[in-house]
Amino acid sequence: MAATEGYGARWMTFLRVEHVDLARKAYETTREQLQPKAGASNHHPLSDESGNPWHQVFEDEPLVREIKTDLDRLYPQGNEMFFQERPELMGILRNVLFVWCKQHPAVSYRQGMHDLVAVLLYAVGGDGEFAEHDVYILFSAIMTSMEPLYTVHRAPVDDTPTPVAPDAEESLFRASAPTKSATPRSPLQTLCQFIQNDLLAKHDPQLACHLQTVAVLPETYCLRWTRLLLAREFLLDDALRVWDAMFAQSFEVSATTPAVGFPLLPYLCVAILIHFSPSLRASDNTGCLQLLMRPAELNAAEIVDSALLLSNPFREASHPDMDLVEFGPGSLGVVLTTAKAPFENRLAVRDFKPTAAGRPGQAEASGSVRIGDLVESVNGVKVYGMTTDDIRKHVALLPRPLVISFLHVTDSIPGEDELDDPPSLSGPLPDFLPGEQCYAHVETSMYQPVFHPPSGSCASHYITGRLFLTNYRCAFVATAGAFAWEMPVLSIASIVAEASIVEPSADLFATSAPTVGLVCKDTQSVRFTFRNHAEYTRMFKCLTVLAYPASLTDAFCFVYRPLVLPSHVLAPFDIRRDYERVGLLRGRFRCIDQAYLLCDTYPRYLVVPAAMPDTKLQVAAAFRSSRRLPAVSWQHPINHAVICRSSQPLVGLKSARCAEDEDLVRLLCAPENPHAVAAYQSYRYVIMDARGQLAAAGNKAMGKGTESTTNYRGAKVVFMNMDNIHAIRNAAQALAAAFDPLSDDNFLAKVEASGWLKHVRLVLRGSWELAEYVHGGVSVLTHCSDGWDRTSQMVSLAELMLDPFYRTLEGFQVLVEKEWCSFGHQFGLRCGHARSDIANEQRSPIFLLWLDCVWQILRQFPTEFELNEAGLLMLADHVYSCKFGNFLFDSEKARLECFKHHAAADVWTELHGQRAKFVNADFAPQRTLLFPSTTWKNIKLWKGYFARFDPTFVPPVPKMQSY
């Protein structure tokens, strides 16, 4: 077997191997020392005498066996029997691996090393006198860079004991160990993550997003690719060409490449991914893994050329008919079209597009782009076969600056008679979202009152345009002008036919055309008129089907697939991380995995007293409405007072009591050191009932009620007089009615009479009192009736006042997910998701009321919140839209069970992805505590939400929406 095209000698140079003769002698000496010879025959294998060479033989036996096992499985692609039929080559492989592993005991032998040595031996040739020596020298040089990828990375062992129930025989729920901070990644994991989540995202972001969406972990395929230097992905002769290019580039150290492996290796991996991009993007998780783990035959020359171009897009600058242009943020300033023959599957520059100020765009200003040029590559990725829509999405996701190469050709632009684009609708179209499908569209007129400030009156006005109905929204686009309107179909509260509309005036409509009115959950009311009854009937039926689907799994969040870079995807929420952050996983508490058996509307992981057996927890849960037993939510970092939440106890008219519940409350709320409470206080902890005393007493007739200080020793019971969901719903409806643009009578009186601001003040005041108790060192148990409405409002607002972390963007996400989503606010029932029963008594804007309270605090402390008003409005809109899965269903359990089978888009990923829009530019936190004023003078109407659709305000209230 002769050396293959001189690769061995060339690689010695590329890998900077010096003094080859000395290295050969050193290898031969080392090999002789490590392999015992005839001397072993003079000793008994079982003798214990010192210096017995058999000891070393036995010690090396596992290593020799492991190497032999892998070599017996060496069947290179396309040359399966090349080594197996040549015993002398197998001996060389065995010797090289054995000597290297003995010289590097910290690494020793790792699976896959035999593939590397096999390629080296194939390149060097096995016939030369120093073939074995040279293979060892090259392998040692390669492993200088590759050794970190073969080193076993062991996570540090944590021996912190996990609190458990006091009596093992009474333990029913698994203890949830504290969540640890992310284990540091090994160099191999770091390289794999870099290839898919960083490098691929910079060159083919749509593929990177797809692999993230279908949950393809980079380690599943990149581990083999990187460890084996792609040896198994190519035929042996092709692998030599790939390695030759890789080693030739080894002296070029890229600042963006991890300091392990070879600089070109990540780009080779990305080139393979891009090569299979169309097939991968059309496959699910299984299909992607099958393709990546067993790829079809690859053209080595194409992959190498692609990798070299990816690593340095400016390589194309040497082409005589090509120019490269670097584009910064903003529009590229070009209009592209499909090129004509002989440039099929290519895109050509059809025209230049000026900036909004009328100046030349980036392409034209560069002076290097001409009309008729072909787009060759973007950031080193060839763009053959792309449509104009494909490249628009592709470029929109790429970070700037980006480099585009243009090939100068002539006669590439088709004439008007050569265009074969399908006919399009006349007029503008809405920008459809990924996963959005248009089911119907029709020409219509939308009623839009025009305000005349001097007279204070509104004139009737209709805007003609086209109404589009999709699986996500109804969107109206005006025929002329920039007017547009949209509303998610699941944010429609009711659809009113013409006969049901009450005319506010006789001349409201200029015609008697069929009319449909939409009453929306965000306070809007709109009307559309149609040309004939057939169009009206079709759109009415389509709207009804879309707004009230048979199943909530038809919601848009389950098909919406925004293109989010993997690096922007947030880790799933884990309530235990917040428990650990506030110190609840230490000391007198323990975290249990109740698996929704103790209470199916609570989070899976609950913090309970370490001294409370699980059997007693079950008894205590049975004594609370909906089994929502007292559980800890937050702990003060200094005085260790806690905020606990629950539902009302089942005391009834006979004033029943439960010793287990009393013990649970005492263990949760009684301070560790009774002397920590001020001496003048007659109580040790507070039970805060959000209801009024009469309302609580009225619940006794239904077998419920509130706690008694006689039974709950050391407790002080206070009532916050907050109204129930029915009063909140009525107040919201009355307030929305006050913003009717056709009526200005007694506006301020209507706002006051609605009672909305009174409810805002009561929630703020109750939350402030809760926070003040806890800040003073007094633990508080708070509840309302079932503990998922007023309780969520008070607990989350109090934590917002006490903990600066919750005022950051990340912390606000944790707060909402913990106190609202995980602790079981009934979003589905309160928001009426996919339900046509608008009169349902269980509907109520509880979460909106809480957001209004947050806005009141934000207004009083404008520099203390990272989230701005636009972010609050975004959440207020999407709690109804069902564009995201966070606010679906009535409990964490129901959501997670659904998400096991139907992946849903995440609102926080979108919010973080648009930080520039939703982050407070004045954010400069200085306070730990925020105690807002709750006097009437400082409770303001949230015009940004309630007045944004009323055209009669001067100046107009910005119509901030994020649909």
From TrEMBL:
Start and end residues of each stretch annotated as Disordered: 33-53
Cellular component annotations (GO), alphabetically ordered: cytoplasm
Residue numbers binding substrate: N724, I725, C784, S785, D786, G787, W788, D789, R790
Residues at the catalytic site: C784
Gene Ontology MF terms in the entry: glycosyltransferase activity
Leader peptide range in chain numbering: none
Family annotation (Pfam families): Myotub-related, RabGAP-TBC
Keywords, in A-Z order: Glycosyltransferase, Transferase
Statement: the UniProt record of this protein carries the keyword Glycosyltransferase: yes
Ranges for domain Rab-GAP TBC: 44-250
SMART domains found in the cross-reference section: TBC
Chain ranges of the Myotubularin phosphatase domain: 569-946
InterPro entries hit by this protein: Myotubularin (IPR030564), Myotubularin-like_Pase_dom (IPR010569), PDZ (IPR001478), PDZ_sf (IPR036034), PH-like_dom_sf (IPR011993), Prot-tyrosine_phosphatase-like (IPR029021), Rab-GAP-TBC_dom (IPR000195), Rab-GAP_TBC_sf (IPR035969)
Record keyword Calcium present: no
Domain PDZ: 321-391
Family per similarity comment: Belongs to the protein-tyrosine phosphatase family. Non-receptor class myotubularin subfamily.
Protein name: Alpha-1,3-mannosyltransferase
Organism per entry: Achlya hypogyna (Oomycete)
